[in-house]
Amino acid sequence: MLVAKSVRKLTAYTPGEQPKAKDVVKLNTNENPYPPSPECAKVLSGFDLDKLRRYPDPEFCELRKAIGRMVKANPENIFIGNGSDEILALSAKAFVEDDETIGSLDPSYSLYKTLAAIRDVEWRGFGDLCDVKGEGAKKLALFLLTNPNAPTGVLKPRAEVAAFAKRFKGVVMVDEAYADFSRENCMALATAKDNENVIVMRTFSKSFSLAGLRVGYCVGPKPLVDALYKVKDSYNVDAVAQAVALAAVKDAKWMRANVKKVVATKRRFVAELERRGWDVMPSESNFVFARPAHAKASEIFERLRGRHIYVRYFSGPKTADRLRVTIGTDGQMATLLAALDEFDR
Ligand code: PMP
């Protein structure tokens, strides 16, 4: 066999559909409906081609400094990846032995399970943090904690994450892909002087409206961050990505204004769903996870898709009765609600 056994038995991660048609309402991959900062456009249009002739800065010094200022962390405690997905994959390499286990909540970001399979180690899912005990024969070396969680949108308070990290023996990676939309975050745990095992990870893909750029970063204790540098590709973040992300960080107020708009739309949208009898989980993210009042989630998903309105449906015992809907513009949410009302007629 030419393909490794672990890969032959692997079920690949299925990302949300990226429809080709232009006239779609795309609420399925938690992208931001608003454009990135105009400063990003300026950097792109004035980009010096000579910078493409040469390799990019392998240590992304300027971007690290700017992120450090934004999150009040020392640049030497910051690592940057080709999307936060790359940081997750590198963590599985850097922090987990072949006979150890990766843990996460279940349900959570389903890529975690696939990453463990690619790394050929065991994955264990837990209903809640208090269930993470009696760790079994194999050591849980890395816990990937999406906070706020996906697909639920539910936030764990910082104090609970801190208490968990204190008793957990391995690395706790708090995946804060959606934290800019949330009322609280765990960055203070990552930057605390006595922190030994907490890494907080963020992305430019959601709040900064730069999913196409592929930049994510994390903050943590230096020995852990150094380990990530050791296992990365030399030039994992390209020159264009570094320059555009830098412009976005310098204009973070643009991002914050977009976040405010999304959060306000979410409030209105949740009220509309609840008025129609839907059960909506309390979301601190740019999406909601909601159970329809009358029809099956899978049916509504298909009918919406037929109208080029894309939301996300996850089969499986804990998720199949709900839809995950990204918060778009007020107009997009109105289109979706109008379609739901027609189905109900
Ligand atoms: N973590 C979570 C919880 C996510 O939902 C996503 C986006 N699918 C990511 C990480 C990855 O984001 P990116 O690679 O675009 O930074």
Structure description:
With 345 residues, the chain is of the alpha/beta class. It folds into two domains: 13-35 and 253-344, Alpha-Beta Complex (Aspartate Aminotransferase, domain 1), CATH 3.90.1150.10; 38-250, Aspartate Aminotransferase, domain 2, CATH 3.40.640.10. It is built from 13 helices and twelve strands. It has helices at residues 5-8, 38-45, 50-53, 61-71, 84-94, 111-118, 158-167, 187-191, 222-231, 239-250, 252-275, 297-306, 330-344; strands spanning 25-26, 78-81, 101-105, 122-126, 140-146, 171-175, 198-203, 216-219, 279-280, 287-291, 309-310, 323-326. The strands form three sheets. It has a seven-stranded mixed sheet with strand order 2-8-7-6-5-3-4, with helices on both faces. Strands 9-10-12 form a three-stranded antiparallel sheet. Strands 1-11 form a two-stranded parallel ribbon. Helix 5 crosses helix 6 (111-118), helix 5 (84-94) packs across helix 9 (222-231) and helix 11 runs parallel beside helix 13. The structure holds 4'-deoxy-4'-aminopyridoxal-5'-phosphate. Residues 83-85, 109, 146, 150, 175, 177, 203, 205, 211, 216 line the site of 4'-deoxy-4'-aminopyridoxal-5'-phosphate (PMP).
Give the key terms.
single chain; 345 residues; alpha/beta; Aspartate Aminotransferase, domain 1; Aspartate Aminotransferase, domain 2; 2 domains; 7-stranded mixed sheet; 3-stranded antiparallel sheet; 13 helices; 12 strands; 15% strand; binds 4'-deoxy-4'-aminopyridoxal-5'-phosphate
